[in-house]
Write a sequence for this structure.
């Protein structure tokens, strides 16, 4: 009971922290699409439930699909978008829990972040004890990039939660006769993001190992049957677009991602937009985007797992191997050199719970060694050693998190030398146009109330929302895209990414100046320039 | 021995706590830049070039000293024709445009202000300025036109030709050549470079004698070439080609004494 209360307290604290943090974040380009699609989806379900809305092909297509691969955002499954929409309708339109629609739309992501912390805590406590569980949960909270993503109405943070929920449900279901839960959770993961289809690549080898080691226990294959049978049913139930022409629509959904365009991504000084990509992108990026102390503790956790594998009380279910496979499978595709790398660490974020769990175990292991070394010379040595080690490692994660927000996509850990060190190394500056929010007050000040269209560059999809939220005067509309937009503008912003340099040059020529009037920086690194027409 | 892992982890953690704070505050702010800009304004002479290092800090440099930098200079072919170059650098970086010892150096709150002086290259002809005199042959999707283009993620004022079905030939008559013909070329536009990975090619001939022949890969950036020439007025022919229709090849060539 005590552990459960601690777990819920940590989860609640996470939800509060993420909700507060999300209010400081700019708007991600994709977020607008998800929020707007989510509102349609939520309305459709609302009509279906309240007034028996038609489930004809035409009506479903109108809300959920269309002839083009991206109509109604049908290239992404609907679970989180639907929750974003329901949250808007419920917590903004009706209950007024949130003063703005965006805050309400982002709330389900915050809840998912809380759920992840609860799951990490619960799993770790059950296998490796309370101390490891608390440390792992705290490190999962203070993971700078993950905290940032949890604040957005996007899929990456929720996918991390549901990925790990599948791992947890599978592990819990191993001794059960009918492990239906893992199938249901796998279906929810599938309905969140396409990378859920990788999960069996972690579970099948784990199960194969157990059966090989135990020379039997075939009944455990029921977990896979649950995944194979119940998972797809849940996906289809949640996604009306799959209620007809199911095979075609699933093929189109997966096919879209298998042939996804390669966005531009800077890595170690080069702009990458076509394979083959360096095999080490995921490893180096993870090295630079997870706090160093967390990584160090995780390293010791792996050592502890190897050294103490024979004495693990849950040896029957091989939890350390499961955690390792979970991380390996989420990162594995990015070692191939052909998988798109543009999303950076968010695309292999499901590895985060594994890192945090290993770190929790590692902290406890090194603290135990320290306590043994101290011996009886100090009273309560085990507790003191654990307290010192845990505080130090968590404090390091907290200090990195403070440095990272609110422009966490520009943040890199101190192993890279921070944001500026990473800029020296030529690491990706940012994406999604989120940083534009930081120049809105300056733009409003410069315009001084006069009508002034703005070339909003990569923030264009979010511009209307910024105005609706009162962050920018209505007299400063988006002037349009590319050269036409610059021609029509009085102000122009450029959100700095290497491949966006061309926007600076177009503005220089049109405005006849290369001198920005304001440059927003994250820890000293330029992220947005503001130009004013002469 | 048992305590070693804990000591390692504690040292790492404490280092990270302090280093994270230090990293976040280690880049000079606007006050330092204003002071550095004042030094440059005081010593600046028309024709000076101002560069910043590392390149990622260029927007901050331009914000404080952009009034002294013409677009033409920022989009230069190279820095050889500048006799005086100001370099403003942070974090121990150096701009690729400067070499040797500076004649002036001052450190201002983390910004190194340095001035380099050298004998500038004497340009006897710039083909960009002579485009109107050129005879153009071959089908093309666009150009030739002198424009500021992104090539290799940097600004370059260059002659842009979007290739058509076959080679495009530009013949510049009576170019007053010096002892050297120096040029650069590359493929403009990041998105067409991504979507079509086929290279381009530039061939330069003086009086029908091939003096430079360069393949231009999509990731090659701004590619330099040079040839020795006789200091006489002569015909320079530039031939651009690519198997990728619409390949945007941009080049600049100077004859230097």
């Amino acid at each position: 009971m005590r552990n459960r209360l601690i777990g819920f307290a940590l989860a609640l604290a996470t939800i509060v922290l993420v909700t507060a943090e999300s209010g400081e974040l700019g708007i991600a380009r994709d977020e607008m699409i998800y929020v707007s699609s989510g509102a349609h989806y939520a309305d459709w379900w609302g009509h279906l439930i309240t007034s028996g809305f038609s489930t004809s092909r035409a009506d479903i297509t109108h809300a959920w699909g269309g002839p083009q691969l991206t109509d109604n955002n049908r290239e992404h499954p609907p679970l989180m978008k639907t929750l974003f929409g329901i949250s808007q309708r419920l917590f903004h339109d009706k209950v007024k829990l949130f003063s703005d629609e965006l805050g309400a739309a982002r709330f389900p992501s915050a809840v998912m972040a809380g759920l992840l912390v609860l799951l990490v805590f619960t799993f770790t406590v059950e296998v490796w004890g309370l101390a490891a569980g608390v440390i792992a949960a705290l490190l999962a909270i203070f993971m700078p990039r993950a905290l940032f993503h949890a604040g957005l109405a996007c899929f990456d943070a929720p996918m991390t939660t549901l990925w790990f929920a599948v791992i947890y449900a599978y592990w819990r279901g191993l001794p059960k006769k009918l492990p239906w839960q893992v199938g249901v959770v796998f279906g929810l993961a599938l309905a969140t993001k396409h990378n859920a289809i990788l999960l069996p690549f972690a579970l099948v080898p784990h199960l194969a190992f157990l059966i090989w080691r135990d020379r039997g226990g075939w009944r455990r294959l029921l977990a896979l049957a649950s995944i194979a049978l119940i998972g797809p049913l849940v996906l289809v139930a949640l996604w009306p677009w799959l209620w007809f022409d199911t095979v075609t629509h699933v093929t189109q959904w997966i096919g879209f991602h298998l042939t996804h365009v390669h966005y531009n991504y800077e890595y170690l000084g080069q702009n990458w937009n076509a394979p083959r990509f360096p095999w080490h992108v995921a490893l180096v990026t993870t090295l630079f985007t997870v706090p160093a102390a967390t990584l160090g503790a995780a390293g010791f956790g792996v050592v502890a797992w190897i050294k103490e594998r024979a004495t693990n009380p849950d040896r029957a279910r091989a939890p350390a191997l499961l955690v390792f496979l979970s991380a390996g499978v989420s990162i594995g595709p990015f070692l191939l050199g052909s998988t798109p790398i543009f999303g950076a660490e968010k695309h292999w974020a499901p590895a985060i719970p594994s890192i945090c769990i290993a770190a929790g175990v590692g902290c406890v292991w090194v603290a135990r060694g320290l306590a043994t070394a101290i011996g009886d010379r100090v009273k309560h040595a085990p507790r003191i050693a654990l307290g010192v080690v845990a505080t130090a490692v968590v404090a390091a994660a907290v200090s990195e998190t403070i440095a990272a927000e609110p422009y966490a996509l520009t943040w890199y850990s101190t192993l890279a030398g921070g944001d500026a060190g990473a800029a020296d190394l030529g690491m990706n500056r940012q994406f999604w146009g989120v940083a534009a929010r930081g120049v809105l007050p300056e733009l409003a000040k410069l315009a001084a109330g006069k009508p002034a269209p703005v070339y909003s560059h990569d923030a264009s999809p979010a511009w209307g929302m910024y105005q609706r939220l009162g962050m920018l005067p209505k007299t400063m509309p988006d002037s349009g895209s590319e050269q036409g937009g610059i021609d029509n503008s009085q102000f122009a912003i450029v959100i700095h990414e290497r491949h966006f340099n061309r926007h600076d040059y177009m503005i220089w020529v049109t405005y006849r100046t290369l001198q920005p009037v304001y440059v927003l920086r994250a820890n000293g690194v330029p992220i947005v320039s503001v130009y004013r027409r002469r | 021995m048992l305590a070693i892992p804990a000591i390692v982890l504690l040292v790492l953690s404490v280092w990270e706590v302090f280093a994270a704070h230090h990293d976040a505050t280690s880049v000079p702010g606007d006050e330092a830049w204003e002071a550095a800009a004042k030094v440059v304004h005081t010593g600046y002479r028309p024709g000076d070039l101002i560069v910043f290092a590392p390149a990622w800090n260029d927007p901050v440099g331009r914000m404080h000293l952009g009034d002294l930098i013409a677009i033409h200079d920022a989009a230069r072919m190279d820095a050889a024709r500048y006799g005086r170059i100001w370099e403003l650098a942070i974090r121990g970086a150096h701009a690729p445009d400067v070499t040797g010892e500076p004649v002036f150096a001052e450190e201002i709150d983390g910004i190194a202000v340095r001035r380099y002086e050298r004998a500038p290259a004497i340009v006897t002809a710039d083909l960009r300025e002579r485009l109107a005199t050129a005879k153009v042959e071959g089908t093309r999707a666009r150009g030739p036109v002198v424009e500021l283009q992104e090539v290799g993620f940097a600004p370059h004022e260059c002659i842009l030709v979007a290739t058509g079905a076959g080679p495009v030939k530009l013949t510049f008559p009576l170019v007053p050549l010096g002892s050297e013909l120096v040029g650069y070329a590359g493929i403009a536009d990041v998105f067409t470079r991504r979507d079509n990975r086929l290279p381009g090619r530039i061939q330069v001939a003086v009086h029908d004698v091939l003096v430079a022949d360069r393949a231009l890969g999509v990731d090659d950036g701004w590619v330099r070439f040079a040839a020795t020439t006789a200091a006489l007025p002569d015909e320079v022919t530039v031939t651009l080609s690519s198997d990728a229709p619409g390949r945007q090849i941009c080049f600049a060539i100077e004859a230097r004494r």
